[in-house]
């Protein structure tokens, strides 16, 4: 773990040094990628996954740009914590100032399905309201599956789940151009796939929201 974190930290330093010759957009993207990579390495190792894999995921998110944690973001986090209390949905602030919702399959989708379950709707309604009230944010929805089944099934299923979540949010008035989606299949587990409980945790949707600096 130390090796990967040191590599991530080195990447941040290198990126920061190289930023002197970049314009503002390039600088935000490069710095965001470095911070995301370091955060991803830490998260990947902390959850029992690969720190290197975590760095790749973190860089992909961080490359969207550096984010700020404003009063709007803090308010939306508190609202989502209230809306999801007792549901098993984790609401956290990431190391690069994104609001993250980790939504397990028993809330979001039935096994092998991509249509949104009824108890997921009220959570997304509250979430959509927060997005409408804070339009200066980027949204990224990532679908995941467990290791049951082949990639030919899991990869499109994870993408379909992310797409269904985006469609629901756009139906509630959120501009779809703000929402990027991705499907990771079984590639990034957060628990073992050797137990029913672990597989259940791996079947999930993650939603990231980052507020862009105004400039």
Keywords:
215 residues; 2 domains; 5-stranded mixed β-sheet; 51% helix; disordered N terminus
User: Residue ranges: pLDDT <50 for 5 or more in a row?
Assistant: 2-64
Quick one: how many beta strands?
5
Count of alpha/pi helices: 8
CATH homologous superfamily classification of the largest domain: OmpA-like domain
Rg on CA atoms, Å:
17 Å
What is the ordering of alpha helices and beta strands? HHHHEEHHEHEHE
Concise structural overview:
This protein has 215 residues and is an alpha+beta fold.
Account of the protein in words:
There is one protein chain. This protein is an alpha+beta fold and 215 residues long. It is 51% helix and 15% strand. It has 2 domains: 2-62; 71-211, OmpA-like domain (60s Ribosomal Protein L30, Chain: A, 2-Layer Sandwich), CATH 3.30.1330. Helix 1 runs antiparallel to helix 2, helix 4 packs antiparallel against helix 6 and helix 6 crosses helix 7. The longest helix has 23 residues, at 24-46. It has a 5-stranded mixed β-sheet. The model is unreliable at 2-64 (pLDDT under 50). Strand 1 (90-93) and strand 2 form a beta hairpin.
Would you spell out the secondary-structure blueprint of this structure?
Blueprint: H1 2-18, H2 24-46, H3 51-62, H4 71-83, E1 90-93, E2 98-104, H5 105-108, H6 121-133, E3 137-144, H7 151-171, E4 179-183, H8 196-202, E5 204-211
Parallel strand pairs: 3-4
Antiparallel strand pairs: 1-2, 2-5, 3-5
Helix pairs in contact: 1-2, 2-3, 4-6, 6-7
